[in-house]
Amino acid sequence: MTEHAPTSTVYTASELIAIMAGRLLTDGQIVFAGVGIPLLAATLAQRVFAPKLTILFEGGVIGPFIKPGELPPSTNEQRCTRRANMVLPSTDVLLLLQRGYVDVGFMGGAQIDRYGNLNSSFIGPADKPAIRLPGTGGGNDISSLTDMIVAMKHEKRRFVEKVDFVTSPGWLDGDDSRRRRGLPTGGMWRVVTDLAVMGFDAQTREMEVLALHPGVTFEQVQDNTGFTLRRARELSVTTPPQAEELALIRELDPGRLYTA
Amino acid sequence: MTEHAPTSTVYTASELIAIMAGRLLTDGQIVFAGVGIPLLAATLAQRVFAPKLTILFEGGVIGPFIKPGELPPSTNEQRCTRRANMVLPSTDVLLLLQRGYVDVGFMGGAQIDRYGNLNSSFIGPADKPAIRLPGTGGGNDISSLTDMIVAMKHEKRRFVEKVDFVTSPGWLDGDDSRRRRGLPTGGMWRVVTDLAVMGFDAQTREMEVLALHPGVTFEQVQDNTGFTLRRARELSVTTPPQAEELALIRELDPGRLYTA
Amino acid sequence: MSGPLVKDYETLRREIAARDRGLREKVMSLDEAAQLVADGDHVAIGGCTLSRTPMAMIWSLIRARRTGLTVSRSITSTEGDLIFASGLGRKIVSSWFSQGIVWGISKVMRHHVEKGLAEFDEWSHMAMGLRYRAGGMGIPFMPVRSMIGSDVGRIRADEVRPMRCPFTGEELLAVPALNPDVALLHVQRADAYGNAQLDGLQFMDIDIAMAAKKVILTTERIVSNDQIRRAPDHTRIPFFTVEAVVEVPYGSAPHECYGQYEPIFAQLDRYAALTAKDPIGGVKQYLDEMVYGPKDWAGYLAEVGLETLLTASRRGRVIYND
Amino acid sequence: MSGPLVKDYETLRREIAARDRGLREKVMSLDEAAQLVADGDHVAIGGCTLSRTPMAMIWSLIRARRTGLTVSRSITSTEGDLIFASGLGRKIVSSWFSQGIVWGISKVMRHHVEKGLAEFDEWSHMAMGLRYRAGGMGIPFMPVRSMIGSDVGRIRADEVRPMRCPFTGEELLAVPALNPDVALLHVQRADAYGNAQLDGLQFMDIDIAMAAKKVILTTERIVSNDQIRRAPDHTRIPFFTVEAVVEVPYGSAPHECYGQYEPIFAQLDRYAALTAKDPIGGVKQYLDEMVYGPKDWAGYLAEVGLETLLTASRRGRVIYND
Description:
Chains C, D: InterPro entries: CoA_trans_fam_I, NagB/RpiA_transferase-like. The complex is a heterotetramer, with 2 copies of chain A and 2 copies of chain C. Chain A is α/β, with parallel strands linked by helices.
């Protein structure tokens, strides 16, 4: 585990990703969150600056408050429903995406490409895969129907020129291909890693580095990426994780289930 | 109100219809019942010989037991839910018809024709009606999707050659027209009046008198009908209302809300 | 409803995206809530026949002199008469329209429809439900197997589409999604954010809430968000669909509210008697005395009478005595 | 599933019409219920991931040596490994398949799928839900706006149909109705007729119950019909869909049952450890020790251990302590 020490504090890569990703949310938003880092990041945002943020879980939950130390093993167990506003069938919580009630989908990723397409299904060809991955779950639905934030480790084997299989559509082949192929709404908005925050060019839809985490260079990001990254005109540097944020993350996940 | 006195007992036309209609049900059936006579008839059957009969109401109710003296004003009030097995959205109880869970639809009728089509929408042309009737409610859904029993008064103005408007489809224009026009299931099965019990010819789908109530002649039925009726090869006579049946009907509707 | 029969998807998405869907308090008065409805809106009404009709809200819209609404509901009862007679709406989209089977055909409805003063567009009950459901699911139509072959489908020919199943080739009817501008719903309890819990019969309320651009919620009582969170699997309407929460005890009187009060039959009989002899004069008299006359909703309830309300309440609670 | 992708309507109607849908008692043992499943059936499994999985029923089917099932579920966890490894099923239709995110990718699933020994047909989570929902509604397809443009739709090209909305002309995807031969569902309580009440997370269970030709219900406890009738608005599955009611305490162990017990993590960790070093040997050992070995379900629970069960129960009830 890489450890950064830009201020007086030490933190893990996962903690860094969770904190940086959480800061991308806005108060009042409705966030469809996956388990793990996305859940931690959304809960962090809720506690620190976004009290009116609403979290949705695929298992059929609206507006829960996760109990520190009792993180759920997936978004389909009773721990996800603690102090929720509403519990409903999973099909119906997914339909909220289709109806347009969700501002941001927030998930982890195994493999991503230049246009923000995610693969969580197959390494190698689908009809004879080298590795059969677990599959889409709700990932395809979420990324087809709303704006997306993806949180993942920045590794060359994960940031590839072209994913083997588009499980969760980003901008497909770039430009207006997403819309042309029948997806008029949503799209990949941000990718948050332990090195940087990335967006996508408004025209070509190629991945672009927007901000570097403290102590990270653009070259370092490029070296850990399997395709040529765009660089924002004004590349900024993120504010280091604050003590309050780290304390909260550790209160939520004291066993380091998701932040080891 | 016509009163018959074939045995020692006196009863109203509505009581006669309810009793005769109730006898057409079979134990274990699932019956989608309208308010009024259909509800009384189904409850009577449940109490007398069909304890495993299940009543459905359009308001979203499965398997209620109506409390004597507390008949509901429609199938959409809480009185319909007394001791029900399940309450569900009205769209979903109607979908049980489409899924195929309902054996019999059971309703009243304002106007019926030779092929068992019912009108509860317009007297006169639909674009300039002489009388705007209340409309279909669930009638169109029920009669499109399951076998039907209709209970109504036998009057010439109600039994017409052709209804002004097909609200609830019977056999449409007879023969296989119902199937040809896109309704492969269900159809009008029995019409119960204060004079007789009618069915429909298996081939032509014309209305046919199957049984006469005690003391009624075929000619009397024909005289009260606006089209030529078929007569079953073996025309039978129904058993008069029994004291037990009348007592139960009066216990259920002591105020004679629906059986005056 | 102005515009096309079915709203295109990007318009629907923009409408929802434009709303503040954060967890915020929305408690207001009937008068304030009435300001959220614009003349000409398509307004969907929850409940069914004599049940959980959002009467106080309709009453408030009539008093606010709103006009030209298109109104839709599963089954329409006395509120439909008042909507036509007051000029609040000139078109009602519904499966059935009259006070209730025991009172016979509505003479007020007949007068308006037969004279061409207003429209009653008839759909089957299930089709109404599936139109709201499609709207709530974010799809533009729903396939259905009724309204086929009959005149109910024929007179809606401009608004339905015969279609074949792309898998089986079977004949089906596509009914168009219905996405009302506003939904009026009355519930037993909700919190200040608009999380609503419904007891007993639900009718089409959940689908209507999801289909509408926004929901105006009237509620017998406002409870704490903590109480809602103690039983989240009883919440039926999520707060982010809701724009207004109005606490109105007896808010569906003279209709019933499940487990709270039965229909106020004395009032319904009185209305039926008034309109039986002179439909137009009768409904005008009723509007003057019971809608325009009272100072506020409490004034209306005072006209209904305390003893009558207590009787209806006693009967309403009976459902939980077994 | 044998036969066409979507059953034609008249076949569906005949299947339901042929069943005895009267209000009758259906209580039986796990062994008896297993006889209601035929080799080759399409079996839908309720719950999701580690929640309300009808584990005792699956366990019973494996012991009864059923084979060749096609199994569908929203999200598949350890039960999928057991289904493949035991030969109970050779095809799983689901949106996700692995024990759970914290344990990594299932090596048992990988072995079977990568070696071509079994199939995992992937659909999006919402599409799975809408396939069951269409089946439950008695319509042959549902239009959906996901699985479009991506490879998830492309590899299902034989089983989906691109279509245009007959109203708006928009591009949509039609997903086929799924009407399983049998549904296995586990609930907190049901009566002897099969009226089931679910607490908390419902997942797709209601749609699955309505879509299936018949339901086998396992329940933590059987309650009186009187108790069900006291709160009919809590009933989620109507009795007439159900063919068998089996009372099985801890019937979804080692997975959780909402409000009753949390997942039995010790067991899940043990299974993960067993299959991590040797997927096939490990799952075989687990099957021998925990499925084929015990005399009955109580014997299985004894293997899990009383203290472990009590801990899981204490944690499960916590949800109602707030």
